[in-house]
Predict the 3D structure of the following.
Amino acid sequence: MTLTKEYRIKAGDFEKAGDASLQIKSTLKSLDIYPDIIRRAAICAYESEMNIVMHGGGGTITLTVDDSGIVLEVRDEGPGIEDVNLAFQEGYSTALMEHREMGFGAGMGLPNIKKSSDFYEINSKLGKGTNLTIFFWQNRESG
Amino acid sequence: MSIQLSEIRKALDAEIIVGHDKLDLEITGGAASDLMSDLLRNPKRGALMLTGLSSSQVIRTAIIADMTAVVLVRGKTPDTKMTELARAYELPLLTTPFNMYSSVGILYGIGLRSIR
């Protein structure tokens, strides 16, 4: 069994921001995935989605589920990340004031993805965008 | 130790916006923040969120984190979109006149500890 779903995320659309992640969570629940994997995947989806909305200039999240695990492919067409190591530093944020007023800007987005995933790969090019692939293995107990 | 939402409502003198039929839900811990990503850092299943932020993203964060209920502090009230989203996901949403510091203290006093 392989399931693939793609979600298009619009830049700056805070009204809908997070809805794709809620749908991803709902899909994983319907597939009877281990609850802690659902929790971690939903967090990664949400942090990714908010990054696309706030910083990424729009993009897509593709969910793939098969017997070995779950993959989230996050692609954006934004400005790219100048210093990836800095972006993964807890507390570092480039959020605008309008983002902070909505409760963002903690600088925990990428650190939460790192903590919640089993594995991830990131490629970013200035002026071209960012590709982030996040993996969760099934049939493993982790918390 | 878990505490029923009805006890929390009473202690915080809270008004129920969504979830009048959910006051028997058990709350296993508390989390207080206005920063959404801080709330996603560690598992929060069964927790009550205390926040001063009145935004639909609060509801989405609570659902993503499997939290059981949300209380807005300082008498904040949700807008229509926030209320509709809470209702759609059956997430209890309350508002208390107490500020964040007092709310946390009150709940600590009745035995609610940090979720983690």
In short: Chain B touches chain A through 23 residues (CB under 8 Å). Helices of chain B lie at 5-11, 36-39, 56-64, 80-88, 100-109. Chain B has a mean pLDDT of 96. The radius of gyration of chain B is 12 Å.
